[in-house]
Design a protein that fits this description.
The chain has 104 residues and is of the alpha+beta class. It is 26% helix and 12% strand. The strands form 2 sheets. The chain has a two-stranded antiparallel sheet with strand order 1-4. The longest helix is centred in the middle third of the chain and has 13 residues. It starts with a strand and ends with a helix. Bound molecules: iron/sulfur cluster and FE3-S4 cluster (F3S). Iron/sulfur cluster (SF4) binds next to loops.
């Protein structure tokens, strides 16, 4: 499966949902996650994310958020169309410790 990383938080560009062939993105207030049981590992979403916040679970950088993607994908609603990105999305791109400080 592919995994949405911490840098998605408060960036939430949503380009990813437009390209996913199986619509396996789920939407929280500040970020999206991928449902690991639904992702078919096609990889097309990875280069689409302006925040470089998507990686395969084979990448060590995805390890810390893998469980959270599964947990939240079971709870949050499915999203299939790109909405309006946050007005300050670009300002949050690359900010550290988002998971700890700004997740909701
Ligand atoms: Fe969707 Fe493919 Fe990305 Fe998985 S890797 S979330 S199937 S676009
Ligand atoms: Fe997040 Fe990137 Fe998608 S910022 S919403 S994973 S395009």
């Amino acid at each position: 499966t592919y995994v949405v990383l911490e840098n998605c938080i408060k960036c939430k560009y949503m380009d990813c949902v437009e390209v996913c062939p199986v619509d396996c993105f789920y939407e929280g207030e500040n970020m999206l996650v991928i449902h690991p049981d639904e992702c078919i590992d096609c990889g097309v979403c990875e280069p689409e994310c302006p925040a470089e916040a998507i990686l395969p679970d084979t990448d060590p950088a995805s390890e810390s958020v893998m469980d959270l993607n599964k947990k939240w994908a079971d709870i949050w609603p499915n999203i299939t169309r790109m909405g309006e990105k946050p007005a300050d999305a670009d300002e949050w791109n690359g900010v550290g410790n988002k998971l700890q400080d700004h997740f909701s």
